[in-house]
Amino acid sequence: MKLWAVLLVAVSYSLAAADLTVSLPGHQLDYPLAELKQQLPVKRVELYDPVYGQQKSYLGFLLTDVLKLAGYQNGMPGDELKLVASDGYAPSMPLSLLAGEPVLAFAEAGKADFEFEAVTQGKAKLSPAPFYLVWTQGAAAKHQPWPYQLVKIELVSFAETYAALYPTGVTQDSAVYQGFLLFKSQCLSCHSINLQGGEVGPELNAPKNVTEYWSETNLRAFIKDANSFRYKSKMPSFSHLKDEQIEQLLAFLRYSKAHKVQL
């Protein structure tokens, strides 16, 4: 058998065997796609996908249906969903966003299970399989998490799960706290502070804080447009952030420098 055929079989087997893990307080369950199809209605959605930059049609399950299947009930301890991809990308989203009816897609409409057009990530092209979280609002939800290669969903209490990066002793109207909120929504999915957060990008605080080896002038420019420093950077452009917001991010990073985790 030729090498490409062996690799194709290996990838097909891997995806066919892929499970989605749902972790709730007190228990954790693994769901193969076949079981999800048996237990839940399959929903077809058509939307403008900002990841691809075009209109797309997907087959999947309402995220609320998946959570209910796993035993989620209103009032369970936790205020956010941590969404974990196979490469370490790990955005979190407040439970309030469930009102937007996000859909856990397992294929593009008209294609086989786990079959998607490849997406560009930096220098690589990747399949979003096994699961891809998409939003029925399309472009209107472009600043919400669109994680692909999703393998786990976990209900967490943010302040407890991310205690090592949560700012204390500051007011909620301070630049530090506002910068923390921006970091949480814009950066945490890829980067960690004190080893808490995503694993796609580098750790930003320990043992060296990024402001200790990058000039703040370069940091401001890099956050705005990483591709102006590195062609095909995995880090997207944050040109939508205002200068004031960039300064708030830097204020949070400076705060973190004085609150490093010790190993």
Automatic annotation (TrEMBL):
This is C-type cytochrome. The keyword Iron applies. SUPFAM superfamilies: Cytochrome c (SSF46626). Residues 1-18 form the signal peptide. Keywords: Electron transport, Heme, Iron, Metal-binding, Signal, Transport. Residues 174-257 form the Cytochrome c domain. Gene3D superfamilies: Cytochrome c-like domain. InterPro entries: Cyt_c-like_dom (IPR009056), Cyt_c-like_dom_sf (IPR036909), Cytochrome_c550/c551-like (IPR051811). It comes from the Bacteria. Pfam families: Cytochrome_CBB3.
